[in-house]
Write a structure and sequence with these properties.
The structure is a single chain. With 853 residues, the chain is α+β, with helices and mostly antiparallel strands. Strands 1-29-2-3-6-7-8-9-16-17-21 form an eleven-stranded mixed beta sheet, covered by helices on one side. Strands 4, 5, 22, 25, 26, 27 and 28 form a seven-stranded antiparallel beta sheet that branches. It is globular.
Length: 853
């Protein structure tokens, strides 16, 4: 009898498990979009059809551009709805509403910055045609939301419901993209912090100017800040943190208690979020940049221009980009039929980077100084006022409420000065503001992307409609932020035209501005105010150069004779130099040649520091094997090689040995965004005794001794991580490209299902860029992770568009149940591509007719 009951119990258990599995499979299938047949959607325009190829890339056939925008909204919502949800919440400062108290400080900053308020102002001032385009796009998104059969898994796990998309959400995300590509404010604040512990000349060595340039002449800002009484944290920081802790809202910047391994104690998925322990979302990280180059028809194998572009941005799952094709039968605002294909951004209704039947274009980040921090002095008799050159003025104030999942609402009041939002209302800079007597100062941010006319939709519309380089340049007059170095090519004449233009709004500063925008400036002194803009037609540009090509890689793109100051924080020129080497290596190039260039992993930065490593003396038992592994190493950063791993481990330890004792806690904080490669080059070239001496010992160390000690520490670390057999060490084993999922990369049990990883070669300075992270990952403790790389690779053939090819870093779908969630990971790693344009002979694999009910 007992055996019979056990048998029936086992059968019952198997039945229950099978039933759960079947129910789970059915639910998972229902989360996938309908991509074939007929789909009835509210407000659908007539004649709309979406064809998808085997890679999930849609071709949207529409009678008008507005209808195409509706169709693109449909495709984005079908494949990337959760991604759009996170973007909407970031732009609106509504992260804590979904993810709980740990996201509160991020929301504080975003509310203080006022992204959503700026987007609303841009929407109110927008011209009718781009406004109609955004409305049509939102209508397509919302029609999909209204007909969902099942929510994507993130919504279900977090207990959220999709909300209607608003056109202002699109503009807010455009501002956040500009934020990701900016970052001068971060460096200004870093210089201020450093100036409280070292003189200006030392700061200029730790944060040196562009190679070949002298530091900008400035006033002694260290003395200025000491004179203002900066440095003592105001009482309000401690009070607010204590109050937040008591209320259980995690109002400070502290994360959950960490275990010994570095993993947060709490694994509550509602509290997991990227960068929660930071007050502000990260921006301006070294390695966030791009490559682009364009070859004239006279130097191409086809006789028409070839163009390459690979934007370097944070790797995410799903990828930032979504590939799409728009085929518009009659673009009434343009000239007849419009065909555009390339990279779109979920949330925006245009092809951002790509090709039409007439032109192709690609972006890199120019990196001008378009952000200035201002120290505003608060009236001690009336804290609602601040000092201006004309006396006291009142802050503009806005009262807002941050909703926090699992906790009480948090009311806040944000302020704005004549310069811009007061970001210290979110705690930014609390460590340096105020005096022991209370908060005397606040920090305000002036930034071009918050201007009312800074939307990019109008220019993007013009780019898709351009029929020539001249048209593209004309459309660029509407571009405000972020400033980009754009290469463009057309098919005009016998061999086409090529050009580079860097449109965008760059401030003019007064001649007597003795801080040059490098550090926060006294807001009550008029000499630090912006006095205008670099004239629109005088931003950097180049047309049809005799050498037959143009390339940019975030390097300094202007010569000493350029009449305007753009900034002084360009990327190191190694990627640009390598691109120039490769372009100059042969008289004519094919598209395959350009593909090999995008795969190039030779770092020209390595030979500058490598002699110090090769001469380093270490008694470590693995030193001889390490030297053997370095034999013949020339900067080829191959994933299967040990040499790049040894080099970067040594460079990391050498940076710490030289700079950590002077920079203190700021050194580890800065490791999130810097490699200190430029500072190492300056110090070692001078054999600088000051930096090479370890302040913690009575002896005076030399740079050679520091190089040896760094090698010993590096080998200790590598041995602990990878074992004692140096011949088995591999760069790719440590250097993993991680496409992070928001928020489940921070939840150990879920990360394996949502996060995407693959080993890669290259480094921060190779053309095939893969930024090297030097700070241990806060969850796993890993070193050398690559979280910023070629988010997109694109090659455009102006002679035969059917040869154009593209690839992004994950897959078209944002749903982990879809095979298209990770279908691009392996080909992306291998620098392979898929066709940009669909082959009419092959036909689509899926056809979806969209009709109104």
């Amino acid at each position: 009898m007992a055996m019979r009951w056990l048998k029936w119990a086992a059968v019952g258990l198997v039945t229950v498990v099978a039933g759960v599995a079947v129910a789970g499979w059915v639910w998972a299938q229902r989360t996938l979009p309908q991509t074939e047949g007929v789909l009835s959607l509210a407000g659908a325009p007539a004649g709309l059809r979406i064809e998808r190829d085997l890679h999930g890339i849609p071709t949207i056939h529409a009678p008008t551009l507005q209808a195409a925008a509706y169709g693109l909204g449909v495709a984005h919502a079908q494949d990337r709805l959760w991604q759009m949800e996170t973007q909407r919440r970031i732009g609106a400062g509504r992260v804590a509403e979904a993810f709980g108290p740990a996201a509160l400080e991020t929301d504080r900053f975003l509310r203080a910055l006022g992204v959503r308020r700026a987007a609303a102002a841009q929407w109110a001032a927008l011209a009718e045609e781009p406004k109609a385009l955004l409305q049509a796009y939102a209508a397509g998104v919302n029609a999909v939301i209204a007909t969902l059969k099942a929510r994507p898994p993130e919504y279900l796990i977090l207990g959220l419901q999709p909300e209607p998309w608003d056109p202002v959400d699109s503009l807010a995300w455009g501002i956040m993209m500009a934020w990701d590509l900016g970052g001068n404010w971060n460096t200004e604040l870093l210089r201020l912090r450093l100036s409280l512990q070292m003189p200006v000349d030392r700061i200029n060595q730790l944060l040196p100017p562009y190679p070949g340039r002298e530091p900008l002449p400035t006033a002694d800002y260290a003395a200025l800040f000491r004179g203002l009484g900066l440095g003592a944290a105001p009482a309000r920081t401690a009070a607010r943190t204590a109050a937040g802790t008591a209320a259980g809202t995690a109002a400070g910047t502290a994360a959950a208690p960490a275990r010994a391994g570095g993993e947060p104690e709490s694994q509550d998925v509602a509290s997991a979020w990227y960068g929660l322990t930071q007050t502000a979302p990260p921006s301006g990280i070294e390695g966030v940049g791009s490559n682009n180059w364009v070859v004239a028809g006279s130097h191409s194998a086809t006789g028409q221009p070839l163009l390459a572009n690979d934007p370097h941005l944070k790797l995410s799952a799903p990828a930032l980009w979504y590939l799409a094709r728009l085929v518009v039968a009659a673009d009434v605002g343009g000239t007849g039929e419009l065909k555009a294909a390339g990279a779109t951004l979920p949330g925006l209704p245009v092809v951002v980077l790509g090709q039409t039947q007439h032109i192709a274009w690609g972006f890199t980040n120019t990196g001008p100084d378009v952000q200035d921090l201002y120290i505003e002095e608060v009236d001690p008799a009336d804290r609602g006022r601040y000092r201006t050159p004309d006396g006291w003025a009142r802050f503009e104030t806005v009262a807002e409420v941050i909703k926090v999942k699992g906790a009480a609402d948090v009311p806040i009041t944000v302020r704005r000065s004549r310069h811009g939002p007061v970001i210290s209302d979110a705690g930014t800079g609390d460590d340096v503001l105020g005096t022991t007597g209370g908060a005397r100062y606040v920090l305000a941010l002036r930034w071009t992307a918050l201007d009312t006319d800074a939307e990019s939709i109008s220019a993007g519309l013009g780019y898709m409609r351009a029929r020539s380089v001249a048209d593209y340049v004309a459309a660029s007059r509407a571009w405000v932020a972020p400033m980009q170095s754009m290469v463009v090519a057309d098919r005009s004449g016998s061999g086409g035209r090529i050009a580079m233009i860097a449109p965008g709004r760059v401030p003019l500063r007064r001649p007597d501005n003795d801080l040059q925008g490098l550090v926060p400036a006294p807001g009550w002194d008029a000499r630090y105010d912006w006095v205008g803009w670099v004239p629109t037609d005088e931003t950097p540009r180049e047309f049809d150069p005799p050498r037959g090509w143009i390339a940019t890689a975030n390097q300094r793109i202007v010569g000493d004779d350029y009449p305007h100051y753009l900034g002084d924080e360009w990327a190191l020129p190694y990627r640009q130099q390598r691109i120039e080497q490769l372009l100059g290596a042969r008289p004519r190039h094919s598209l395959d040649d350009l593909a090999r260039m995008q795969a190039d992993e030779r770092s020209l930065a390595v030979p500058v520091l490598l002699p110090w490593l090769q001469r380093a003396e270490s008694a470590h038992p693995l030193a001889a094997a390490a030297r053997q592994a370095l034999q013949g190493f020339d900067g080829q950063m191959a994933a299967e090689s040990a040499a790049p791993l040894i080099f970067w481990a040594w460079q990391r330890q050498l940076s710490r040995g030289l700079f950590a004792d002077d920079a203190g806690a700021l050194f580890d904080k800065s490791l999130a965004g810097r490699s200190f490669n430029d500072a190492l080059e300056v110090v070692l070239a001078r054999d600088d005794a000051h930096w090479c001496d370890d302040r913690g010992t009575p002896e005076a160390e030399t740079c050679a001794q520091q190089a040896g000690a760094a090698l010993t520490r590096a080998l200790d670390d590598l041995q602990a991580r990878f074992g004692s057999d140096v011949s088995r060490w591999r760069w790719g084993e440590a250097h993993i490209a991680r496409s992070e999922h928001r928020p489940f990369s921070n939840v150990g049990a879920l990360a394996r299902f949502f996060e995407l990883r693959t080993p890669v070669g290259g480094d921060t300075y190779t053309v095939n860029v893969s930024r090297v992270g030097l700070r241990p990952d806060r969850r796993t403790g890993e070193l050398f992770l690559d979280e910023h790389g070629p988010s997109l690779r694109a090659l455009y053939d102006l002679s035969d568009p059917m040869q154009s090819r593209v690839m992004h870093s994950t897959g078209q779908s944002g749903n982990p149940f879809s095979p298209l969630y990770r279908s691009f990971v392996q080909p992306w790693r291998e620098v392979a591509y898929v066709p940009l344009w669909s082959d009419p002979a092959a036909g689509p694999t899926q056809v979806l007719q969209i009709r109104a009910p």
